[in-house]
Amino acid sequence: MSEHPTSTGKGTGADAANLGTSGHRRRKLSPEEVAAMEEKIRKVEVAISLVLRIGVTLSVLVIAVGLGMMFAHHAEYTSINGHFSYKSLTSPSTPFPHSLRGLVYSLEHGDGRGVVVLGIFLLILTPVLRVAVGVVSFMYEKDLPMTLVTLFVLVVLVGSFFLAGA
Amino acid sequence: MTPLLFVISLALISIAGGVIGSLVGLGGGVVIVPTLTIIYGVTIRLAIGASIISVIATSSGAASAYVREKMTNLRAGMFLEIATTTGAVSGAYLTTLLPDRFLFLLFGLVLAYSAIATYRKRHSAEPLTVSHDRIANYFNLHGSYYDTAEKKEVSYKVVHSQLGLFLMYIAGLVSALLGIGSGALKVPAMDSAMHLPMKVSTATSNFMIGVTAAASAGVYFVRGQIDPVIAAPVAAGVLLGALFGAKILPRVTSKTVRIAFVVVLVVVSLEMLQRGAFPGSAHHAIPVNR
Q: Which residues from A are below 8 Å from B43, CB to CB?
């Protein structure tokens, strides 16, 4: 991916106006075009920022609901002077869902920890979704090199989940 | 301690992890792993699972603000993710030829060296104005940001993209193999090798670590390393802390960020050396039962 004959397209004179905008360009842009380009970039930034914010908020809400359910179902977890130690929930032998089937099972039985895992799933998926939004945004910008770059990252990410066999 | 107290106290400590992690671009794991293993007596296996979640939470939480404020170099970050994700995936499946003990010692030393290199660069903060790097020019990885502390727009050029890609691959590999050090190599790769300004380096590292962590999160989940009772307060606390940290970064000087990064890097380096020197704790680092 290193050698590219078109990489000389940008002169240093136009750089100040082109900072942060997309790659190779053969002619100098008019101020209107630069403004339009910056507007597009801004939209990409806002879109990515929004995706991250929504993903994060949603996952934290689901995690909170899951924790609430867990404590509501187990009175012994919450008493201040109780003898029930957290260690029985955090020891290496503690059972908790760690496969999709286990997750579905625990959700069907109304287990709060299953809901927490669902929220954690949403959190893990947020960066993946962010990369996907990047692909679409660069396509919209008609920036082929960056579209391919982000598409590659997306394929590796999605592939990593299938390789894990979750 | 009851589970309720555990959840509340861990969430509060995680807030600090989120603030520090988002400022220096390393994610919350730096604080979370020692807290869980030393204070709460959780095994390193589950602590690393929680650390992966904290890294994703720090990254997504702070990046939503950094991207909006142009602190993150989106293009450079997304470009370098080619190498980090590939490294993370290959690391998760690589049965190491070298014992982890050796890896911990090696990377402990590498991080100690990059801490020194980063510290020595503290006076030469001027960004580059010219770049002859063909990759950086082709993909237009250069950028600019408004520095609130210096009250001016800072433009910068990126160089040595190939070296950057190589270091990012190693960073992805190491984070998947050892479970820590995700951003510890990313920040020096961008700051020292590619000449991005320090604050942009930590913000961009912060942006990238979520994707690197997500690439190995599936494996950690299937291995049963992500315990919901530990991960829930960590995720919530770290997120809150990261949002707070994102408000601080634009206002502090690059030099302050650099010093904070060096201090954290020294701690991580010592942590790695300690795990290499005392294999009793180190051999849990790579979970054996897949």
A: 91-92
Q: Do A46 and B213 touch (CB under 8 A)?
A: no
Position A3 in a domain: no
Residue A40 exposure: Cα atoms within 13 Å on the Cβ side: 19
Nearest C-alpha in B relative to A53 = B64
Question: How many residues are recorded in chain A?
Answer: 166
How many angstroms separate the CA atoms of B216 and A164, rounded? 8
Q: Pick B81's closest partner by Cβ from A2, A3, A153.
A: A153
Give the mean pLDDT of chain B.
85
Joined tokens for residue A22: 């997309």
* Chain A residues 16-55 within an 8 A CB cutoff of chain B: 16, 18-24, 44-46, 48-50, 52-53, 55
Whats the size of chain B, residue-wise?
Answer: 290
ipTM, two decimals, is 0.86
Tell me the three state secondary structure of residue B73.
coil
User: How far is B195 from B185, CA to CA, in rounded Å?
Assistant: 14
Rounded CA-CA distance B232/A63 in Å is 6
Closest chain A C-alpha to B43 CA, distance in angstroms: 7
Whether A127 and chain B come into contact, CB under 8 Å, resolves to yes
Q: Is residue A11 part of a domain?
A: no
Q: Does A78 touch chain B (CB under 8 A)?
A: yes
Which of A134-148, B65-79, B114-128, B269-283 is the least confident region? B269-283
Alpha-carbon distance of B63 to B100, in angstroms, equals: 32
Residue A97 in any domain: the answer is yes
Domain of residue A154 covers 29-164
| Number of domain units in chain A | 1
In a domain? residue A6 = no
The per-residue pLDDT for A10 is: 39
CB B85 within 8 A of CB B186: no
